[in-house]
Amino acid sequence: MGEGRKATAAGRRLVHGCVGTLLLVGVTVAQTADDGYVRARLALLAEIRENFAQTAAETGRPRMSPAVAAALARVPRHEFVAPAQRDRAYVNAPLPIGYGQTISQPYIVALMTELTDPQPRARVLEIGTGSGYQAAVLAELVAKVSSIEIIEPLAGQARERLARLGYANVATRIGDGYYGWPEHAPFDAIIVTAAASHVPPPLIAQLKPGGKMIIPVGSQFLTQSLVLVEKTADGSVRTRQILPVSFVPLTGGH
Ligand code: SAH
Predict the structure, then answer these.
(1) Please, what's the b/e burial string for 9-35 (b: 16 or more CB within 10 A of its CB; e: otherwise)?
(2) CATH 3.40.50.150: does it fit domain 19-245?
């Protein structure tokens, strides 16, 4: 219990205390109760920044915003993987989380988060809670996160983990995310973290005018595309393909 809180608190002090210069980062690390992963998280952030620069032409986002970078610097990713995976928690790669599922690559989490333009007062829906990592990153940035997971044990573990780490603004439930969460709708943004064959109409319906959805579309063994869906003020929908990606499939009876 205490360890997770300390990890988060150390991250918070670091980010608020340093705003960027390496010298100050060094001082802050030395002065705070380092959770052992502070340097690894900062190294990962540097890699993610490079990935943003490398993919700028496709994504239209050459830089990660300071807010998203700060969120990634605060969330203790090692708390979201099994103990056997901890030494790989800050490698820029997806990792297994059991039940044939994965926690997404950190760059992809950063990019998907960035593409929704998260605002402090926003309400965001996530489909595919998995480990709860993406939900935690969003929870650092927006007012309220609602997250749906179809595999019961994963949903239970993520709920327990998010509560233990103090993420009180995340609501989770078990279910088929294809249908969204009508009781919590409408949403400013929706992030789908499993690949669908098409953009689910119930999710478009639950998006606010002016809202954004980011969703991998395609089949399991062929190329999938990360798609940005924007609902305009008059309710019409625009889509744009961003990057080829590889996600586990969106399952369920729909
Ligand atoms: N966002 C997660 C990664 C999720 S991997 C994280 O940060 O760790 C994709 C997840 O989507 C898996 O846990 C899978 O069980 C879940 N999933 C697949 N189909 C779903 C559906 N129809 N509704 C809700 N969750 C689904």
Answers:
(1) ebbebbbeebeeeeeebeebbeebebb
(2) yes
C-alpha 16 to ligand 1 mean position (Å) = 32
What's the full length of the chain, in residues? 254
Query: Is the Cβ atom of 229 under 6 angstroms away from ligand 1?
Result: no
Mind listing the pLDDT tens digit for each residue in 116-145? 999 999 999 999 999 999 999 999 999 999
Distance from C-alpha of 202 to C-alpha of 217, rounded to nearest angstrom: 15
CA distances from 61 to 77, 115, 117, 120, 181 (A): 24, 8, 11, 20, 29
Q: Which residues of 74-108 are buried (b: 16+ CB within 10 A; e: fewer)?
A: bbbbbbbbeeebbeebbbbebbebeeebbbbbbbb
For the stretch 44-88, pLDDT in tens is 999 999 999 999 999 999 999 999 999 999 999 999 999 999 999
Host H or E run for residue 47 = helix 38-54
Q: How far is the CA of 136 from the centre of ligand 1 (A)?
A: 14
Q: Which residues contact 149 (CB under 8 A, 6 or more apart)?
A: 128, 129, 130, 155, 158, 172, 173, 174, 175, 177
Where are the chain's structural domains?
A: 19-245
Please work out whether the CB of residue 101 comes within 6 Å of at least one atom of ligand 1: yes
Name the residues annotated as catalytic: 104
